[in-house]
């Protein structure tokens, strides 16, 4: 779903409904691999005005329920459930035993296994929304710490600002790239980040650079050669689309994207996609729609 303040399907002041925006990695460089398998990276996150939305209804039975299951993901592995349980456990350990339950509904638009951060974004939205619904009154830093225990990418969604990430992705520095239009192309496959990390062989370590140093050269993704070699459909798509623009991988895929100065130009290429290949055009934004909604609701005093 495309987000904007005029969107009638997402009422800005309806505190039961919360946006969960997608992200892209404008570049991704692998600078090393730890003994435990985690990768040292440098990457630049930017948000899209596109994503899922979640609906939260508190209950008196203290149970956490996801009303509609996400196909292919078991509840115990679902980051929404894990985030809600993490917050509830934190409140319990801090002597708050009156935290109610919740029923959660998700409307899914972000493709699963696409490298757009859907699961991490869903978890971040859950932590922020339940922090309000359950009147936990925790700081963003505390929520980010809880999120980091679940997934490396979750803190950037908690803070809601574009950022240059280092370390294993947990060290964030605010950075504001240009807000361009992006054509996101969705191949009909899912790619497991964990699987790619396990298979990735670091043949040549990228040197540590500043974000500005990366932006002076053509942007790239160190996982892309491996992905293109192992997933021929992505290789074929990038080769085909290279006639129109320079496309590259976001995250560990499967989605690829290219940036444009105008929405019209991006849509022009969208209409040239091969049959059965989906895509969408979205504006990049340095402030996530979730953060915008949080600010609007605070200004109108509709939050707890």
Short description:
It is built from ten helices and ten strands. The chain is α+β, with helices and mostly antiparallel strands. The longest helix is centred in the middle third of the chain and has 16 residues.
Descriptive notes:
This protein is an alpha+beta fold and 304 residues long. The chain has two domains: 17-175 and 286-299, Ribosomal Protein S5, domain 2; 181-285, Alpha-Beta Plaits (2-Layer Sandwich), CATH 3.30.70.890. Helices cover 31% and strands 25% of the residues. Strands 1, 2, 3, 4, 5, 6, 7, 8, 9 and 10 form a ten-stranded mixed sheet that branches. The model has no long low-confidence stretch (mean pLDDT 93).
Taking the alpha carbons of the first and last residues, their distance comes to: 27 Å
Could you report the average pLDDT, rounded to the nearest whole number?
93
What is the CATH-assigned architecture of the largest domain? 2-Layer Sandwich
Quick one: how many beta strands? 10
Low-confidence stretches: none
* N-to-C SSE string, H for helix and E for strand: EEEHEHHHEEEHHHHEEHEH
Query: Sheet bearing the most strands, described?
Result: 10 strands, mixed
Oligomerization state of this entry?
Answer: single chain
Helix content: 25-40%
**How many separate structural domains?**
2
Assigned CATH class of the largest domain:
Alpha Beta
Radius of gyration: 19 Å
Number of helices, where a helix is a run of at least 4 consecutive DSSP H or I residues = 10
CATH third-tier fold name of the largest domain: Ribosomal Protein S5, domain 2
Q: Into which percentage range does the β-strand content fall?
A: 25-35%
Structural class: alpha+beta
User: Could you say which overall geometry the principal axes of the C-alpha atoms support?
Assistant: globular
